[in-house]
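Problem 12. The chain below contains 496 residues. Write out its predicted structure in token notation.
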Amino acid sequence: MVDTSALGRFAVPAVVPNQFGSGSRPAIDGRTFAKYDPATGEVLCQVVRSSAADVGDAVARARAAQPAWAATTVVKRGDIVRQVALLMKEHRDAIATLVALETGKSKKDALGETDAAIEMGFFVAGEGRRFYGQTTTSAVPNKAAMVVRQPLGVAGLIIAANTPIANVAWKAFPALLCGNAAILKAAEDTPLSAWAFGLLAAEAGVPDGIYKTLHGLGEEAGAPLVQHPDVAVISFTGSCDVGRWIAAEAGRRMAKVCLELGGKNPLIVCDDADLDLAVTWTLGSAFSNAGQRCAAGSRILVFDAVYDAFKAKLVAATQTLSVGTADTDDFGPVINEEQLTNMLAAVARASSAGAVVLTGGTRLTGGTYRRGYFVAPTLIENVRPTDEISTSELFGPITCLYRVSGFEEAIAIANGSSFGLTASIHTQNIHRAMTFINRIQAGVAVVNGGTYGSEPHMPFGGLRQSGNGWREAGTQALDVYSDLKTVYINHNPQAV
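Solution.
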């Protein structure tokens, strides 16, 4: 059980409301939906179920308020972003408690995620002192040339449930710094951390109308936000299928779209790898956060020369993992019953097609697992690179082992995916490592580490079905939420 004594003013409300700056409100039609605790299967709270009418009201208010925010200096906007981060740091324990409650992850892991969100705030705030325009030369005498950034207008932010407070921070902070009004459609499975962020944003001085939190189902609240003609940019983290729909809908009205989608991320274990180190990083890549990462290591490609030794070590280590919500546990439940059912059905289909489940592949039941959405850490072998389980993102604690003849086959299989988010190689050969970096088709390449992990000052994103080319975090996030304006000044117009 999560200790809720630290919540204070952030005690879970009976109904999580929409937030329009300093005010909160129900859905216009009064509807709600239930949010379930993934660790117990019990109703945690009710959540406002927004409709297109709520979206329209939010966009109208945001559009009216945005010009004044855009006219605020970017340094001042950065100062307000910093104040949000400072308040998050002050209420760190309460925010992490909410994250733990709504995701089922341990308090320790929730604190780590909260700290990452705070660091994102501090990083983005600092960019208010730079903002990366450009001054350059002109071919014409007496003429100055420069490039400046300008806000887009209203930003629609749609996030996933896997790392809820980090996902809010990755989108809300740069969107606000760039001078946009932002409407965040929270993931229906994680409303609480988004609600807390909205409270702190208002307290920090984000003006009314500039930051709004909307709750609801994707087709009822997310879709109208994507389709609204006054939303200038949509930033979405989630599934490929939804991402493709968003790209098509936004494209019809030429809105800007940033998509951070799924992955089937390879981790290559070479014949010269430190096998114990490779096992450690494989466990983290495959099973941390119950495998609910777009960067999860779900394809482990192992050279034939060390396959049997590595498999034995990995199976033994996997069987020692502890599943639960305590700080001593390695990972917790998946986010909802539907996700659990879908991933176990995929394992069953793979098994029927000839795959071998080395360990796991089942729902954990009884005792503390009695009603929660817990899946045993699962290793599968004897699958083909083209099988469904090799090509579909499961978003759970499931990974597949592949025996490969050597480097060339490993690279071919790794690059044969329709995804291209992250990839890792374990080797002690610097030439092989550099060749991997050059040839792997992924947005993030890692040597002797995991497939997951990011830092606030580094860009994150992928290729093909993993994204549409934009990058979140880093200074590159500014490019998502601003446009560039080229400026010429003829400072001696009388001169010929």
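Discussion. The chain has a mean pLDDT of 96. Students who got a different answer should revisit the alignment rule from Section 12.3.
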